[in-house]
Amino acid sequence: MVYRIVSEEIEEPQYKRVTVIGLEDGRFQLIITQEAIGTPEELAFFGILGGMMMLHTGGREVDFTPLIFLMERRELLVVGEEFLLIGGGRFIVDKYIKIAGIETIQGTYLDPRRPDERMIFAFSRWAPVFLFPRLRVEELIDDEWRLLFKVELIDYAHQPPIK
Description:
This protein is mainly beta. It has helices at about 40-45, 50-55, 70, and strands spanning about 1-5, 15-20, 30-35, 80-85, 90-100, 100-110, 115-125, 135-140, 145-155. Mean pLDDT is about 85; it is low at about 45-55.
C-alpha cells in the first residue's frame, strides 16, 4: 500500500509505504517506510514514532477515538445514515467510492469542539487495509472549506498469506 500525504504546512507531498505480510501462524509482519522532502523546519516533526502525523496535521491533534466503533463495525455503515458518537460528534455516511481500486464507504466526521473543521474518512468495505484509504481535514474559512491535510491510498496490492 502506498499513501500520498499533502499538507498546507509542507511544500512537497510525502509518501508512506505499508507492506503487510500474512504469516502461516495467523500473525502479520508490518513493514513501513516513509519518504519526505522539506526544509529543516518542515522535517522537524518527522520523527520515528508518530511525529510524522504532527507534521501532516500542522501540529493539530486528530482524535480518532470516537470513530473506533465505526471502524470495527463498518458493516453498519449505509449511505445516508448519521451516527452520533462519543463526545457529541457526528459521522454522516456520504457515499461508496473506489480508492486505489478498493471499495470504500466515505463519510464526514463533525466534532462539536471544532465547529469550523471537518474530517472526511473513507473506510475499506472488505479489503484488508490497516489505515484509512482516505483522510482529509478541512477548515471553514470565509464560508469555504480549505484543505489542511490529506492522506490518501494511491496504490494497493494484496496477496494471500504465506503457507
